[in-house]
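Comment thread on ticket #2218

A.B. wrote:
> Attaching the input chain for the structure job we discussed in standup.
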Amino acid sequence: MQISELKLAKDLIRKPSITPKDAGAINLLAKNLRSIGFNCKIINFKNIKNLYAKLGKSSPNFCYAGHTDVVPPGNVKNWTTNPFKPIIRNKKLIGRGANDMKASIACFVAAVSRFKNENKNFKGSISLLITGDEEGIAVNGTKRLIKYLKRKREKINFCIVGEPTNPNKLGEMIKIGRRGSLTGRLTIIGSQGHVAYPHRANNPSNTLIKILKKIKDLKLDKGTKNFQPSNLEVIKINIDNHADNVIPGSAEAVFNVRFNDRHSSGSLKSKLGKIFKAVTKANKSRFKVSYEVSGEAFLTKPNKTTYMVQNIIKKVTGLKPKLSTSGGTSDARFIKNIAPCLEFGLVGKTMHKIDESVSVSDLKKLTKIYKNILVSYFK
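C.D. wrote:
> Ran it. Output below, let me know if you need it in another format.
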């Protein structure tokens, strides 16, 4: 049986799987995979549906990882079509999830169906690790699937994550790592009082401003061979004060650090903590801080499989993809703990936007790339 990447992409887009809702997307995918011989295990963690599907039982195990959940479409009236009723216009497939990343999943499934038709007795196995919890807090998706696979002693030898890695043209970029992400929620506690008598109060906003300036002025590093410089951004400032004649008792701020492999979340917490302690002590105030680490910085050292993928992409697209660590976080941050991995998918120019779309020509090319990777990997 041969699966059409365009038909499957459309069918998946029709499922309004806005994170964390599944809306039937995982079952649809499993049905298609079973039709070409995959053993499919649907695994629920709380309210999240996940899928681990496998074709074959022997080693090596080549895995494709992705997600069926999508971000909300925003104001549907701003779309030129219903975001969950895909259409083709100007040789582009339009719909939520077209490039992030339902169409990429469809390309890999189509590629496997063609590979299997031509290589019925290949030595090894092909698996798909699919979650419905990537666009949200990512607690009950790939992170827990990895733990599940470890418990089952399931080995993955190499993994491609099908995120939309290309900025403008298919073939521009492969991701071989990502910066880490640390979010801090800082509260400064002072002393409330009347604005006319500031000497009787301790305004926490003064302390907060000093701290935010210090951490924003931090020069964390100049970048490394494989990573751009780390950066800290203040993303929220809040003082919950509804009166104009009251000095508040507390002030809050939220900041995020995107950091390269010269740091860990632990080393950054230590560095920031020293600043918080010094400034609050000097200003006779107190602080509380909590952190969320969505991932540590990581790099998958390029190996022969990486270069094989790079060469196949060049043959199909005419472009030699750059090996990059740019962008935000992805589920590769979890997968790298059990297998070497890289990321390559469609063009991400319209991901998360109104009228998200992908070139139909790119769908065909990506399917060809994925199929040729399988051929070369199992040769």
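A.B. wrote:
> Thanks. Noting for the ticket: Residues 5 and 106 are 5 Å apart (CA to CA).
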